Amino acid sequence: MTTVIVAPTAYTPSMPTTSQHVAIIGAGPAGLMAAEVLAQSGASVTVYDAMPSAGRKFLMAGRGGLNLTHSESLPQFLARYREAKPHLTRAIEAFPPQALRDWSEALGQETFVGSSGRVFPKAFKASPLLRAWLRRLDSMGVQLALRHRWTGWDEQGRLRLQTPDGLRAIEAHATVLALGGASWPRLGSDGAWTEILAARGVQISPLQPANSGFTIAWSDIFRDRFEGQPLKGAAFSFGKHSVRGEAIVTRTGIEGGAVYALSAELREAIDRGRATLRVALRPDLDIKELIAKISVPRGKQSLSNFLRKAISLSPVAISLLQEAAKDSGTSLASLSSSDLASLINAVPIELTGVAPIARAISTAGGVAFSELDADFMIRRLPGVFAAGEMLDWEAPTGGYLLQASFATGAAAGRGALKWLG
Hints:
The protein is α+β, with helices and mostly antiparallel strands. It contains 15 helices and 21 strands. The protein has helices spanning 29-40, 56-61, 74-79, 85-94, 97-106, 127-139, 193-198, 220-226, 257-260, 263-272, 287-294, 303-311, 315-327, 337-344, 400-420, and strands spanning 9-14, 21-25, 44-49, 69-70, 111-113, 118-121, 143-146, 149-153, 159-163, 166-170, 174-177, 204-210, 214-215, 230-238, 241-249, 253-255, 275-280, 347-351, 353-354, 362-367, 384-386. It starts with 8 loop residues before the first strand and ends with a helix. Residues 1-18 have low confidence and may be disordered.
């Protein structure tokens, strides 16, 4: 059989018929929202994405229930963005959580507030919302060009895109970059854009895992027995920060919602040298109650059975105590009731590192806000706007990630309209 190698075609300059063409690079929430804002005002919009379908990471986010936003008061909501709050406030105030809920409901996806204050579509999935959204964008004339990977600009300032048919050069009167961070790269956001923008002199804060797991040097016995087991009803703390919730023991460490909520502080501590996560296994009991419950004679029961019955500790929790005692050079059985009670509600876990960025929920770092004007335009690249997770902000899970992505996408769309005049 003869193998035929087809060389990539030369650039194919492509110019739409309208005089106001805007290119959106990235078909995630930020990019699609920018496209909607622009199309509503009559711009000719094409959304380019390297993947075979739109919104892949958005769909992934909805696998366990699409957490669109949060119902808490706006001042408290904005505080979740930490150092980025001043840079995101204007965009989120212009497109706040209630506006996002209204937008979802206009697409036929009613929302509700869960017991934790988080907001979900009643369908609890991302796919119905994304399908309705893509239908609306199509009715507005938005074009979707898939399998088009942006690789920068050519000598004439045209957007360079690698397609299945070779390289294309696209002229645009404005461009919105919404390329995401570097978590879950197989879904499209691989962070390759950092080198393209850095080569243009744009300051990029290094991309780091956010809402991520951490590595721990578990003993072989603990790892083999409890990999995949949850620590439920615990309180996880680091410094002045404490979170009630659940975490999962992994083969290499620990992950889960309660750990993600502390990930920024833990990551920064690891960068400085070390981080010790403390776990309260029975946070609903104070020290006196714990001492009273475990001071009862246990007779012939093993200590593990006694702790399971006396204070309802799970096998993974008991083994975690044993790991901590062993690391300190002692055994649980040798501890006094007072020392054991203190350990139960402050189990120290030494973190050895941050889990790989490819497994993180989101990304910290990105385009520095000092590089952007008030309309999210990159000052060094007139007519080029940036939005979403590729900007230098991070937030905990709970609806804050998607809210800021939608809001900055809308803000970048408005900025592009202003640029077009």
